[in-house]
Amino acid sequence: MDSLTQIALGGAVGYAVLGNKIGRRAILYGAALGTLPDLDVLIPYAGDVESFTYHRGFSHSLWVHLLVSPIIAWLLSEFHPNTAHLKLRWFALVFLTLSTHALLDSFTVYGTQLMWPLTEYPYGVSNLFIIDPLYTLPLLIGLGFALALKQPSISAIRANKLGIIASTAYIAWSLSAKVMIDQKVEIAMEEKGIGAIAYVSTPAPLNTLLWRVVAVSESGNMTKYHEIYASVFDEPSEVSFQAYPSSPMLLDPLSDNWAINRLAWFTKGLYSVKRQDDNIIMSDLRMGVECNYVFNFVVAQTDAKGIQAINAKKVSARPDFASVGKIWDRIWDPSVNLSPTAPCKPLPLDETD
Question: What integer pLDDT is reported at residue 353 of this predicted model?
Answer without folding.
Answer: 46
